[in-house]
Amino acid sequence: MRRPKADIAYWIWCTAAALAVGACAWFAVSRFTLAHPELLWLGALLPLAAALQAWRERRSAGLTRLSTLSAHLGKRGSWKALVKAMPLALGIAGTGMLIIALARPQSHDTREDVHQEGIDIVIAMDISGSMLAKDLKPDRLEAAKRTGIRFIDARPNDRIGLVVYEGEAFTQCPLTTDHATLKQLMADARSGLIEGGTAVGMGLATAVNRMRESEATSKVVVLLTDGVNNTGSVQPIDAAHIAEALGVRVYTIGVGTRGKALSPVARYPNGQYKFEYVDVDLDEPTMQEIAKHTGGKYFRATDEKRLREIYEEIDQLERTRIEVEQFTSRKEEFHPFALLGASLLFAGFLIDRSVLRGIA
Q: Domain 119-319's class?
């Protein structure tokens, strides 16, 4: 007594069908989102159904006695055994595809709408000769430019402008989102370009004037100086009142060590500066009053580390509000699985009702 060739064919076809269904299920799970993933557990019933059907087929056919190898395992017998096993395998595969379809694979499209509450910022930077003092390295001006560029890099979503001033003030860069150009213009700023002196009021007034047409939710000026207002047609407090009227908040920064600093006191004919230790003269009360009038804050930077910390604090105080609204649309992807499953079941039905009857 030997096991019929049909038994082996059944298990070969059923194993192939189970592997195909498993591969398709893995594809569906990894590629799509399933609306009803719990239905995939129905696939566990397929091996039981296959075993039951194979048992019924074997019982109806009975055991086959083989007198010789050629009597049963010839080419014709093997071919017939393979064909007879196909309807069951196709039924398993087709049912598995329909189970995957019932789990409803879905693809999804995600779109985000970003709503940004913009902030306009103008940095008003003192570039007078005293900003060449050596208490910050290599001098106050270079340290202020480095930290200012870091501040710009930290705020990619805001419009930022630059005003520089000595005895007069002018706009080095209007409000812009082109931060590469802005940083280059800040790096190029140097002392001695315009009339000497320190016109703090003019620097603030020019910066505030750049905000006149701004429609930003928040308008900010960062006013940086190392001295005392000693020239210009606008007094610092008058400029602060204008800023207050226009809703511009002013953060003031006083730069310089406490005590004496190695500072330029004269200029040689060849353009080089003569340096001596002189008292640091910074009008802190006026800077504090400007900040108080406009709702800002006054800071003192005695070294570059403190100056970086000040800019970081201003960055935190004036954060850009960004709201992200997400929209997701889903698309049903079960149709190919349902079509494939129905096709496999129909193919199995045709083979069972036509081909197998012809070779029975």
A: alpha beta
Q: Report CA 76 to chain centroid distance, whole Å.
A: 65
Cis peptide before 138 (omega within 30 of 0): yes
Domain with CATH 3.40.50.410 in the chain: 119-319
In contact, 90 and 347? CB cutoff 8 Å: yes
Q: How far is CA 298 from the centre of its chain?
A: 34
Q: How high is the pLDDT of residue 269?
A: 86
Residue 286 · residue 294 · CB < 8 Å: no
Residues 72 and 78: their CA atoms lie apart, in Å, by 8
For 266-302, b where at least 16 C-beta lie within 10 A, e where not — what string? eeeeeeeeebeeeebebbeebbbbbbeebebbbbbbb
Express each pLDDT in 305-357 by its tens digit: 999 999 999 998 887 655 555 566 678 888 888 898 888 888 878 877 776 66
The residues with which 300 forms a beta bridge, in sequence order, are: 254
Point out the residues of the chain with pLDDT beneath 50.
1-3, 63-77
Quote the pLDDT of residue 242.
95
Contact in structure between 209 and 203 (CB atoms under 8 Å): no
